[in-house]
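Re: that chain you flagged

S.,

Sorry for the slow reply, it's been a week of failed gels. I finally had a moment to sit down with the sequence you sent. For the record, here it is as I used it:
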Amino acid sequence: MEIEVTLNQQRGIAGSVDTIEADEALAHRIGLGDTDAWDRFFDRYSSWAYRFAYYHLGRNHADAEDLCSDIILTAAKSIGKFNPKRGDLDAWVHGLARNRLARFCRSRRIELPLIPDFVDQSSDSESTSSGLSDKVQMQDVVNRALACLPERQAAALIAKYVEGYTTDELAQRIQSSPKAAESLLVRARASFRSAFNRLLGSTEGDSYE
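Prediction finished late last night. Pasting the C-alpha cells below so you have them in one place:
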C-alpha cells in the first residue's frame, strides 16, 4: 500500500519538549515578520505540502501546486493561532492542510478522500441514507468530522486508516505503548462517530469556512 510521506517520518517522532519550544519560538519570529524564520518555515514545509497535495489530488500537478501554495500562505497568515500546548508545529500544519484540502475540493467539486472501511463502521446506515445524498457529501462530512476532533485523535485515525500504520507503529510515532495507542484509537473512533453522525444533517450548500 502506497502511503503518504508524513512530516513525522521526515523529522523522526515529534512532540518532545525541546521540539515544541523550538516551534513556538519559530512561530513567534514569523509573526514578527522575521524573514529568516519564514525561510526556515518554507524550507521545512513546502516540499511536504506539495507531496500532501499531490497525493490527495489524484497526482494532478497543477492542482497540487495550487493547494500547496494555499497551505503555505494560509499557515503563514495564521501562524498566530499556533498553540504549542496542543502539539508541535508539524501537527498544526497537518491539521491546517487537511482543512485547506477540504475547502479546495469543495470549491472545485473534487471528490474528497475517505477513511476506508471506517466510515461504514462509524455511521448509522438509516441516517446515512436519509442525510447524505451522494458520495461527495459523504466525503465532505468525513473531512468536517475529522476537523472537529482534537488534533491528536484526528492524527491517530489518519495514521491508522489512511496512511496504513499498524498500532505498534502508531505507538512509536506518539512515543507511547501499543496499549495506550489502542486506547487513543478507541477514543478517536468514538469521537469521530459522534461528530460524523452529528454532521449528517448538514446540507450540501452550507458554508464551512
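What I noticed first: The CA atoms of residues 5 and 51 lie 7 Å apart.

Talk soon,
D.
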